[in-house]
Amino acid sequence: MAGGVWGRARARGGPVGALTLTALAEGIQANQGQPTRPPPQGPQPQPELQPEAQPGGVAAATATAAGEPHSAPHGQEPAPEGAHQAPQCSWEEGALSDLALYMAACLEEAGLSGTQATALTLSSALEARGQRLEDQVHALVLGLLAQVPSLAEGRPRRAALRVLSSLALEHARDVVGALLPCSLPPDRAAAELWRSLSRNQRVNGQVLVQLLWALKGRAGPQQEALAATRALGEMLSVSGCVGATRGFYSHLLLALVTQLHELAQGPRSPDAHKVWAPSDRGPPHSHASCAVEALKALLTGDGGRMVVTCMEQAGGWRRLAGAHTHLEGVLLLASAMVAHADHHLRGLFADLLPRLRSGDDTERLTAMAFFIGLLQSWPTARLLREEAILERLRAWRSDPEPTVRWLGLLGLGHLALNRGKVRHVRALLPALLGALGEGDARLVGAALGALRRVLQQPRAPVRRLSTELGSRLPPLLDDARDSVRASAVGLLGTLVRRGRGGLRVGLRGPLRKLVLRSLVPLLLRLHDPSLDAAESSEWTLVRCDRALRWGLLEEMVTVAHYDSPEALSRICHRLVQWYPSHVPSFLSQTQGYLRSPQDPLRRAAAVLIGFLVHHSSPSRFSQDLLDSLFQDLGQLQGDPEPAVVAAAQVSSQQVALLARAQGSGQGLRLPRLRLRRARPARPPPVYPDNPFQRASFAGRWGCSRPGRA
């Protein structure tokens, strides 16, 4: 029957579309039911396949591929029943390729209506071969891959690509398995085939599922996962393909993010340095960039354009592909999705739970980071019991791996933000306070950030934190790590802002003691080379000024931005008047900064000592303190920085004048008021301009330093 159809098509000079394909399938199926002679024993001559211009030659080759019986050559005995001889690979690929071209010619006339008939015909032909179906599909896909680039643009090429879609409609797994090895190294023809599969709404969902399994399969070869990443990048770049991901969107998203972690931890891809021409529509330069583009396409196609924009503005994509910043990128991605794609959060949260117990480190850590980021969403966090979340985070907090402890601390901070978890805040404090003594800057920064979030709650434990931080926070104000120093100063400012009610009524509690103990570091950190630490110190000093009603806001802002000696002199004069008993403590603290490795801090410490000494009464100082100050300032006379030497000389003169005034007043029994009037006025210190302040804060507000004439 099939032969009759092919003959009629040949007589008319070409195929007749869907009718021809349907009849061809019926003929192949009918031939399968006919008794066939056993194949002959021994080698057979390989049939010669000469391409012809007329479809008849193609039809003849197709008839061979369809499984028509062959007569054994004369003189050969039949092989035993049940014996099977695999055909030669070249013969098989050639016959199947000719079959594909014939169907493409039919589809050129049939259009989209022939797709189902093509699928039926291909399945019938492949099953009629009597061999493993996977091998047959592999041969046909390779034939299409080799012949499609030579086809002309337009209807012929589109028809041939629809043949591949028809094949994937019935054999998606085998098509993906055959096409994946052709995607590495990147191939333009393979990329075109993936995009053609993506455009077909009837098969793209099946193909995406197979690619997802290839990407998630940890037991499979690494090259298969890389090829699946490339293929997903090509398919998701096609507009309208994201609709096929419904039902496994979260699985696909997590698989791509985890694959980025794998790529960041592994060696660089072999094509990382390949340069593509502007006219080349090939894949991106690296596997990581291809995965990133696939993620962008997945999010954008689903209405998450704002997520992509937020990630670009925060440098999230670069962090996501970095070896040491991947988890930070995952946290940024989760935060962006909480803000702009909350319709997927519940599905993501559910799919993350089994991954938290994965034996693969990259998958587990990526899932943990995503889980922590999603805790910022109050409705999402409510999907689990509060006690279960808290127990999990506490377990992570005690994990021997620093990265796991860091994620646990971030989770505790996010948990403190949720309105439904406020009653657990007091249970979080021991873990957060204990982390302040960690050696890893990430852990300390996470703990400081979490404590700051705790203070933002309506019923924050201000008094308890003031007591607990009294001994823990001051050392962190002078930490060598810029990020830790800035975060510690910011936490102090938040604590003062929340406790300003108690400070205004004159409570001499732990918070007032903490502020006075931190006052000197805050003033000196206005000159910190780290802009974050300097700005955080300014913000915290403003909070202290408002809470304690000092009225020094103008002076503090002037010192922070213009380094005015007159403004600093007024600040020291007020502090000496208000806290005379704390002046020796202020000087002892400042004395330690004279040995700072940073030039701006050494000079700022010398200037602060000079003004404190100038405005203080001689009766407040012991001889030992004066000797110590004079000795340390004298050691700065040999400082390599001239500005530090000049400031130390002026301050040494102030210490000498104070010591002289202290000696002249010994043995006198005059009233205090008469002593103040009788004491001769000491000349104020005069310091040269500070060169460090201007150099450090040039361009702070987006303006460059004015040039000198």
UniProtKB/TrEMBL annotation:
Keywords: Repeat. Residues 36-48 have a biased composition (Pro residues). GO terms for cellular component: cytoplasm. Residues 49-66 have a biased composition (Low complexity). It holds the Pfam family HEAT_Maestro. Residues 389-655 form the Maestro/Maestro-like HEAT-repeats domain. Residues 97-208 form the Maestro-like HEAT-repeats domain. Residues 23-88 are annotated as: Disordered. It comes from the Eukaryota. InterPro entries: ARM-like (IPR011989), ARM-type_fold (IPR016024), HEAT_Maestro (IPR055406), Maestro-like_HEAT (IPR048465), Maestro_heat-like_prot (IPR045206). Gene3D superfamilies: Leucine-rich Repeat Variant (1.25.10.10). This is Maestro heat like repeat family member 6.
